[in-house]
Amino acid sequence: MFYKIAKRLLDIIVSIIAIIIFSPVYLIISLLIVFDGCKGPILTEINDRVGLDGKIFRMYKFRSMILRAHDWDYYLKIHPDWQKYYEEWKKVGKLPADVDPRITKVGKLIRKTDLDEIPQFFNVLLGNMSVVGPRAPYKKELEGYIKKYPEIKRYIKATYSVKPGITGIWQISGRNAISIPDRFRMEAGYAKRKNIFEDIKIIIKTPLVMIFRKGVLE
Question: Would you state the pLDDT for residue 213?
């Protein structure tokens, strides 16, 4: 009970402070997206993710992709050469940012700096995310991981027994340099420990990891 109350208080305090600090950045990024030349909303159109207890929720992120980015049938008619990207995407429902042709110019910039993630502090205030927790994947992405790495099935329930986070043990420990099975093992371990001091440690370490970009695929 202590952990649950302390974690919620920490989430509220950190997210309010972050929203205030980032308020000028929210405005600047919103304007950049509007004037980027790629029509569409400021926030990602479709961003349904796997959250607490496997329930689906909408994660807020700045739009970093072209409009209708997930409508591959539409774009393959216009860009037949994207077939190779589509085949890769089908495996896990995701492409590395440095090769994904659907990412906009502004999108590349905000992804490189992780600034596309900052609207998630509103998710934290709403209560469907935490500042610290396991990463929230797309449903198709998670299904792809399970199919490719069936050994992670034993970690899924524990991993999503807590709210997903903006940052977490995976992000500060090497991120994409860590294998998928190891990532789920780490996140399941974090979820089981329920240690508020570990949360604080992860929050403190996150800015340094963002600066040095350890394990990030550009």
Answer: 57
